[in-house]
Amino acid sequence: MFLENFSVPLYDTRHRGTALPLQKGRNSSHELHYTAKMKHASTTQPHLTQIVFSGLGGHTAVSMCLVRELRVQGIESSLLFHGVEPLLEQTRLVCEAENILFAYVPKRAGVDFYSIWALYRQLCDWRPTAVLSHGPNTGLSAFPYALLHSAKWLVRETHANHLKGPKDFVASFFGLLLADHVILLTQEYRHELLSLFCNVGGKRARVIGNALDLRLYYPSSYSSARSRRIRLGMVSRFTPIKDHKTLLQAIALLPTELQINMDLLLAGQGGEKEALDNLCAELNIQGVVHFVGLLNEAEIARFLRSLDLYVHATLGETMSNSLMQAMATGLAIVASDVPGVSNMFVHNQTARLVPPNQPEQWAQALCDLISDKDSRRKLGQAARLEAESRYSSQCQAAEYRGLLE
Questions:
Q1: Could you tell me the pTM of the whole model?
Q2: Counting C-beta atoms within 10 Å of the first and last residue's C-beta, which end of the chain has fewer, N or C?
């Protein structure tokens, strides 16, 4: 019942084509490995391979957006998915529909030498002129390839510094030391990271933020006078670094007259799902909170246009793709006042910022905006204007192209 308003127009890419033939095969130690067939890339034109996490997350949306925009600018790209989570079926279908060369290399938990070798072999097969690692942890495959084939290695850092572990910091250090360019999402993040390593790699560190296709994410034209329950929503993985617990506790604190006329829709999947289900039962808010499952990019755009208020409870971000999508959709936003979020907004102008782990303050912020349609409208309009000025996919692709040529 909660997806019935998703059937609104969505952007149709100009670059659809015949799906590439797909090979499916197994080996004795790993799961299904998808690879699209293609001849070796031309050595006379730039060809970028992006190494992307295979599971749910903002990486896929960012990488797809970059593929589309670089194609407009004459640069072909391929996507090499990698991770302990299987490649999402919806991601595979989009790659096939848009004629994007892709492969999936599965990984075991911990250090998996087979997957390191498999990534390297796939790069050798495709022969890209540049490799973009979404995160420095694939450097054991990407750097040797770049070194031996005179290719560029770019690293895109996205993991919040205050949430990194020792292995993450080691990978970040070697990325700064060895990569041709390290892409950082904000100036604040760049300053933090370089300060930790005494400015090692400072000349290689470039700030290029995330971006969106604003043709896909746009405000709903549905009448604001519609008579229905107020919809709140959040799109994210269910992981410990998200603060869903505080959000659910805040919902339980709302007055009964608000609860009976609202729905909180949580899109995503992850290991914390069962614990969140149990918390909903404990707080007696099962009738208010609804888990709508995993959504693809087009469904996310529709989902956001069906909402009245976007909420984003988290313990830390670098530059949240979900928040950017909500901004572009023109939604009023209540978000955690944490690093990687607070630098994206001006409190009470483009969003309402609330400290994490404070359910009472969250409940007050939600109550204020649920009850005040005019404030929601003003915040949403300001957020959309901010997205238009800061998150253009065309500008982002032009910056990446400058690093590739």
A1: 0.72
A2: N
